[in-house]
Amino acid sequence: MKQNPMHSFSKLFSILSSTILFGGLALLLSDCFLKQDRTTIIYGTVTDQNGQPVDSILVIADGVQGFKYETLKKTYSDDEGKYEIVIEPAKRYSAVDTGIPFNTSENSKFMRSYLDYYSKENGVRTGTCCPATIGKKTKYDFQLIPK
After folding, report:
1. Residue 33: CA atoms inside 13 Å, Cβ hemisphere, count?
2. Is the pLDDT of residue 30 over 50?
3. What is the DSSP code (8-state) at residue 79?
4. Is the pLDDT of residue 6 over 70?
């Protein structure tokens, strides 16, 4: 029995158009269902020049949008010098920057006794401070420099 060539073409066209339609629909819907986890965790320890923990030092996390910084969360180091910041920055922020703020009454212990600090990211000393990748866990340890 001979097959009609028009029927084969019609069937092939139907399969191809269905594949394109459903593939495109899946691609459009994937953005709705597969959201990127933006949970960002920044943690570490604040110590003095002798490696002893320092409590009550303010550590902040700023959301970065272009050249604009907005404080997203603040925390203080505990009795063991440890701190942790957990945030989920809005999509408008391209990065998160963390550090110990200068010249603020909220950080009086730091202002009274310390001049600056060194930082280590995941155990490696950094030359600059302190970007954290959105959606990742980053460790920043701060060693305070006395006055």
Report:
1. 6
2. no
3. T
4. no
Say if pTM beats, i.e. exceeds, 0.85: no
Q: Provide the total of helices (H) and of strands (E) in the chain, helices listed first.
A: 2, 9
**Nearest Cα to 38, choosing from 74, 78, 72, 79?**
72
Residues 89-103 pLDDT 10s: 999 999 999 999 988
> 10 pLDDT band (50/70/90 cuts)?
low
Tokens of 42: 């920044």
User: How many residues are present in the chain?
Assistant: 147
Phi-psi region of 145 (alpha: psi -120 to 50; beta: other; left: phi over 0): beta
| Residue the block writes with tokens 């029927």 | 7
Instruction: Tell me if residue 130 falls in helix, strand or coil.
Output: coil
Max distance between CA atoms of the chain, in angstroms, equals: 97
* Selection from 135, 143, 138 nearest residue 42 by Cα: 138
CA–CA distance, 118 with 104 (Å, rounded to integer): 19
How far apart, in Å, are the Cα atoms of 47 and each of 101, 125, 141? 16, 14, 8
CA within 13 Å, CB half, 98:
32
